[in-house]
Specification:
243 residues, alpha+beta, archaeoglobus fulgidus dsm 4304 fold, 7 helices, 8 strands, 28% strand, globular
Length: 243
């Protein structure tokens, strides 16, 4: 699948337009103040020579007396190729469709910003400040945080990460713009997360860098899990069943 260069340039302009709508603000809420915590991940399969995407929402219901996890999935044909920096145009349409299915059940919670979304991918740690987590957050006006296993854009001190649990991620060595944090997973959880020793945490939308880190750490301490990892593991199970 080949995309015309003019189309790519127009998509980059669209990212810059959406990035101007970013709302990076401090959130005073703690993780247990949210009624739902949702992890989003996707995988891709071949069916009858067609590429299809499967999106999974892992949903943690924050009840007072107990915690309940449920899953929602959706599978559809994917019509946009993988292009670094333009991942959202490949993944977002499918995510959006499942979001509106979620909205049928939790409309009030979503309207009241009582749902926190963690998305497998980057937020503002992106060349145009609009990774999939930011794209999602801006388009749907939700609180979103990106969790990525690999750096897409930015600078951090790798030596710091060898001895510290957490170090800052900036846009360049001059540290002109704070993009998020880099986490040494083994120093925080004594294990790899999503098979990775390092995670990149960045705000998507309606949240800032510090609040994103705070809520990520609280998720681990309060629930002993990473919600996107649950979505990832569920997709691995589904994918294995279909092979």
């Amino acid at each position: 699948m080949i995309i015309d260069k003019r189309v790519i340039e127009n998509l980059k302009k669209e990212q810059l337009r959406l990035a101007n709508k970013l709302n990076l603000v401090k959130i005073d809420k703690n993780i247990r103040d949210f009624k739902l915590i949702v992890g989003i991940d996707l995988t891709f399969i071949k069916e009858e020579a067609r590429e299809k995407g499967i999106v999974c929402f892992s949903i943690l219901k924050n009840n007072i007396n107990n915690i309940k996890i449920e899953y929602k999935i959706l599978k559809e044909e994917i019509k946009f190729p993988y292009i670094p920096g333009l991942l959202a145009f490949r993944e977002y349409p499918l995510i959006e469709k499942l979001f509106y299915i979620l909205n049928e059940e939790y409309k009030t919670e979503l309207e009241n910003k009582e749902v926190l979304f963690f998305i497998d991918g980057h937020g503002i740690s992106h060349p145009r400040s609009l990774g999939i987590a930011s794209h999602f957050g801006v388009k749907l006006n939700q609180i979103s945080i990106g969790i990525a296993k690999r750096k897409l854009f930015g600078y951090y001190n790798e030596n710091n990460l060898k001895r510290l649990k957490i170090t800052e991620l900036y846009n360049n060595e001059k540290k002109e713009k704070h993009l998020g944090y880099v986490i040494n997973t083994e120093l925080i959880t004594n294990r790899k997360i999503l098979g990775s020793k390092v995670l990149f945490i960045s705000p998507g939308n309606n949240i800032d860098c510090e609040s994103s880190l705070k809520l990520f750490i609280q998720m681990i301490k309060n629930y002993n899990l990473v919600i996107t990892e649950l979505a990832h593991n569920y997709l691995v199970k589904i994918k294995n069943e279909q092979i």
